[in-house]
Amino acid sequence: MIEDDDIELLLTDLFDIYGYDFTSYSRASLKRRVVRLCSLDKFPSFAELRYKVKTDGHYLKRFVEEITVNVTEMFRDPIFYKSLREDVLPILGTKPFIRIWHAGCSTGEEVYSMAILLKEADLLRKSLLYATDLNPSVLEKVRKGIFPLNQMKQYSESYIASGGQKDFSAYYTANYGQAKFDRELSEKIIISTHNLVSDSSFNEFDLILCRNVLIYFDKDLQDRVLKLFDDSLGSLGYLALGSKETLKFSAIQNKFKQLNREKIWKKIV
Amino acid sequence: MEENSVSQHCDVLLIGGSAGSLEVLFKLLPQLKPALPFPIILVLHRRNSAESSLSDLLSAKTKATTKEVEDKDQIVPGHAYLAPADYHLLIEKDHSFSLDDSEKINFSRPSIDVTFESAAEIYGPGVVALLLSGANEDGTHGLLMVKKWGGKTVAQTPESAQMPFMPHYAITHKAVDHIFDPQQMADFINNLS
User: Fold this and answer.
1) Model confidence over A131-154: pLDDT tens digits?
2) What residues of chain A lie within 8 A of the CB of B99, using their CB?
3) Does pTM surpass 0.90?
4) Which residues lie closer than 8 Å to A106 by C-beta, 6 or more apart?
5) Distance from C-alpha of B107 to C-alpha of B109, rounded to nearest angstrom
6) ipTM score here?
7) Cβ contact A113:A74 at 8 Å
């Protein structure tokens, strides 16, 4: 049984000892993740979990990886990707150079989806995709571009639903139950750790994608992160969020205009 | 079932269902009184399709304002909320919703267990939870949590369910206070206050 006060103690430890600030994360989900980890790693009580986190820097890595959600997929919400293809990439294509930021990219399935869209629009050669996350270990997976082969059937269906017309399997090599995506895609991806809670803007982008990350933050942190995105977008840049996230009620909403029914906004000032 | 005659208190009504639950809702929802003094939260297993027509379908059947939940929506009495496809639905202390796209639970996202457990922690004895037709184990753990925190639990009579497995599983795991058919459920809900 883990009490709400226990969670607050743990968050204070994490910040004081390691500088990780989870205090503005949504409590319901965070608590669920801590309870889950406590049972997954078979701690007899919360006190043992807390002690382990405080004293074992190696375990901290696992802790951070497990309490943050790293579930992602390629071409999730195919209609969203269709809109990127049809409404956003033709405009970005008029630029001499395209910079895209995937903030909180996890293991990178969305980054590779984007790279495929760019390649099919013949824009990949003049594009760079910045993939950032607070977990170094998930970024290692982005670097390798290797995903489970048993997911490919579903990804292929989503790819087609997004307007893809090629044979999806042409983008990867299958081996030992894994699908390794082409180097041509991965060499356009720049990987770096970045914590949306504590790190600042590091470049100016034409498109920022941050999908299903803000749902884990409270309203104040959401506002701060949206301001960070606003500061990191060039004029007429695009911001894409998850299907249940919104700019409505945020401090930056008046500077953006939603393109269509998908969660894509264009910066208008 | 004699306590049924005394009005049961309710701060939030939870309804979980899987295969075969829609037709129960189509029968149940139109019979509910307008302006019920508590919110209704629906967690239904369904395919993630691009068009969220389910909330429109349900909306047509009830007098309550029905919406598919978006991140951080505030929970208002008298409204009905539908868990969006492909997200777990959680409840915060300030009675707002949080969404979570972590691993599936019982092969399901949204998982009924996740929402029921979260609501039980926040609303405690004020929870009334209904589990409808389905072919999956989801919901039983959630009902047990609702009971543990002092709430009331109801399962659909397996005989009246298109897919009896889900309510039956809850009943055999002693997670259920009442076993009602859809008509009894409607009467029960209309007597909550």
Assistant:
1) 999 999 999 999 999 999 999 999
2) 215, 244
3) yes
4) A69, A70, A71, A72, A133, A135, A138
5) 7
6) 0.92
7) yes
